[in-house]
Amino acid sequence: MIGQLTTDAAPATIGGPVLWISASSLYRALRHIEANGGTVCGQPQLDSGERWLAEIEDPAGNRIGVVVPVGAIQSQTMIAVRDVEASSRWYQELLGLRSDHGGPQYERLLSDGTLVLQLHHRDVEHHHGLFVSPDVEVGNGVLLWFGEVADFDDVVARAAQLDAPIVRAPHRNPPEGQGNGPGHREIWIKDPDGYTVVVASADGEAHEPVQAAGA
C-alpha cells in the first residue's frame, strides 16, 4: 500500500482512520512533535509490554498514532562535574558524541541517537538534591567504560591532543599470547574531573590467530 498526506483536505474531527507511524525512540519522537507544532494527547501507553503507543495531533488537528518498540534496558550513567559545558566539549571531542541538551547545569550526550552519558553540575540540586559528597574522591571505584569504539586509534590521538592524563597506555585485553577473550584494545585516561575513562575497540578487533599444532 502507498499513500500520502495532503493539506488540501480539512482535518477529520469526528471519526475516521488513524495513521500509525513507527519510530525508534519515544523520547525523541515526542520532542520533535512538540518542537514542530504538534500536540501529544495524553501519556503514552504500554501495549502488552512490547510497544509504546502515543496519540498526537499535527498542527492542522489531524490525529496520528506513534508506535515505538520497547527497547532493552540501558545503562544511562550520570556523573557530577565542576563545569558541565567544558566536560561536554571534552567528551564530544574525545568520542564524537553529540549534545542533546546543553547548558551549564545538565547535559545529555548521545552516540548515534543513543544516550550514553549524562553530566550534572555537582553544586546544583534540582528536584533530586545533591548526589555527590565533597569529602569523597569522585569516581572512586567507578570506571566510565566506552566499548565497541570503531575509531580507536583516532581516540588515542584525540586523547593526546586533549592532554588527558594516561592511567594505562593503549594495550590489548588480554595481553598478547594469552588467548582471545574480548580480543580488543583499551586505553585508560582521566577526564577533567578526575574520573577514570576506559575506551575499548570493538570486541574481536585485536583477534589473535591460533597457531596450528606443529606449525
What would you note in describing this structure?
It is built from three helices and twelve strands. The protein is of the alpha/beta class and 215 residues long. It has two domains: 19-69, 2,3-Dihydroxybiphenyl 1,2-Dioxygenase, domain 1, CATH 3.10.180.10; 78-201, 2,3-Dihydroxybiphenyl 1,2-Dioxygenase, domain 1 (Roll), CATH 3.10.180.10. A four-stranded mixed beta sheet has the order 1-4-3-2, covered by helices on one side. The protein has a four-stranded mixed beta sheet with strand order 5-8-7-6, covered by helices on one side. It has a four-stranded mixed beta sheet with strand order 9-12-11-10, covered by helices on one side. The model has no long low-confidence stretch (mean pLDDT 90).
Kindly summarize this structure in a few lines.
The chain contains three helices and twelve strands. The chain is an alpha/beta fold and about 220 residues long.
Secondary-structure blueprint:
Elements (H helix, E strand, L loop, with lengths): L18 E4 L3 H10 L3 E9 L3 E7 L5 E7 L8 E4 L2 H12 L2 E2 L6 E6 L2 E8 L21 E7 L2 H10 L4 E8 L10 E7 L5 E6 L14
Parallel strand pairs: 1-4, 5-8, 9-12
Antiparallel strand pairs: 2-3, 3-4, 6-7, 7-8, 10-11, 11-12
